[in-house]
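Supplementary Methods S3. Input chains for the assembly prediction are listed below.
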Amino acid sequence: MVRLAKVIVKPDQLEQYKAMLKEEAEVSVRIEPGVLTLYAVSEKENPTHFTILEIYADTAAYRAHLQTRHFIDYKTGTKNMVKSLELVETVPLIPEMQIKQDSAALRLTK
Amino acid sequence: MVRLAKVIVKPDQLEQYKAMLKEEAEVSVRIEPGVLTLYAVSEKENPTHFTILEIYADTAAYRAHLQTRHFIDYKTGTKNMVKSLELVETVPLIPEMQIKQDSAALRLTK
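Predicted structure tokens for the full assembly:
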């Protein structure tokens, strides 16, 4: 299951939002084996515009993710920071060309 | 260097475009060490809308990529298939949380 989340954040909430998204992405990839990738970028020319590439092992892994404490904390904590959110279901062009996020590196930075 | 390429393809050229993008992405990741990721998705509801997450080791790797035969073949070959192209420079939220595309899997499928 591969999705793009497109998030626009309120400018005065940008730093707080980034801190919360960082925490959520790090914890998810580190402790949820079914969360294969949560790779977030912001646009250089529009720093409040984020795109998150989300790859889940399957829909069960995605549903489990929605029930985690860290996701719920992120979702409720950022509710008033987000100006708009678009979730775009996608199809990978080359399913066998997988990407894997390096959660080992995360542990080193803790 | 992390970028999003947003491509909209002419509907009647969709299959030909996908074949050319597949070839280009596969070859680039397989033979160019500086091309860390070329991960392309199309939108389920708008199959002609592609987003490509492009991660290059540095700008030198990107410039070298532009000179490769496979990139030039893709660029010239798809010129008339593309309705619009937007290149968005981005900043990764968590630079140390790298992703790596699995080019070993590609060799198995060849």
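The longest strand of chain B covers residues 82-92. Residues 62 and 76 of chain B are 18 Å apart (CA to CA).
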